[in-house]
Amino acid sequence: MKTGLLLAVDGGNSKTDVAVLRTDGTILGRARGGGFRPQAVGVDAAMDVLAALRAEAMASAGVAADVEVDGITAFLAGADLPYEIKALREAVGARRWAVTQRVDNDSYAVLRAGASRPWGVGVVCGTGINCVGVAPDGRTTGFAALGGISGDWGGGIDVGTSALWHAARAEDGRGPRTALHAAVLDHFGLATVADVTAALHSGDLPSLRLSELCPAVFAARDEGDEIATELVERLGAEIARMALTVLCRLQLATAPDPEVVLGGSVLAAGHKALLDDVEHRLREAVPTVRPVVCTQPPLLGAALAALDLHPGPAPGAEARLRAGFGGAAVPDPVRPGGRSSGV
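Predicted structure:
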């Protein structure tokens, strides 16, 4: 028997969000908890975290925990390689939480949250970088997104690491002067870049904190620093290259107004030079492309994808759902702050 209920999951490395919604787009309950980290704690332990949050969300929606809903969409961190996706799909299916399910990489949540339709290309640039695409016929593609070992460069960690590299060489004489030297010292409050390097080497400074240098790189670029300008240009080129590769793989370059959703903390921050560069590179190759900056939460994308699982959703369901997350019914091709992207 159909319940008219759906589950949406955004399982990120740092936090997991779960929502219960009706097929008309009404949000009934939510829950938030710790990160979904199957590669660190194992699939079973990660699923236990998700199970507890599902029960909490169901309770907040006034729904019994043993109810099997009509559909669940779970976009999860750690769903990178085919065997990982298969294992997570089997783990979610074994819980019998829903009649139908979609389990995939968490990058798809950003794509669906920012797109005005269920297909398109999404680039997520936050701590790391990834790009995924969905064709109108449902075909998908993307990258392993495992960092340097899979050919990736981009995101806060890589930009911050490169900034530190140039700052170290400026300090010891192997490289040119750069404003990034002072930026590194100011940010970490240490006397020398060598001290920063030593703290990273010893573990006193977590390497993840290098991503915090990204805003300083953008600021140095805006002040005319040559090294920072090169890093921002490299990032723009990588973002555009990933998106164009996926557009070509799915034969979307000739589709009507193909959307490229730009999300993640680095892109959602709205740095004008970076966004303008990405848009120029995309339009140079595909003049009809429609770049869209996504500032909506990934959970919205998971919820919209859950609606996509349900045949014939109620009229206005997507608009109602977007309104429930505080967003517009259809995303506009504008930059954060309301500046038109020129589309």
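Summary: Confidence is low (pLDDT under 50) at residues 332-343.
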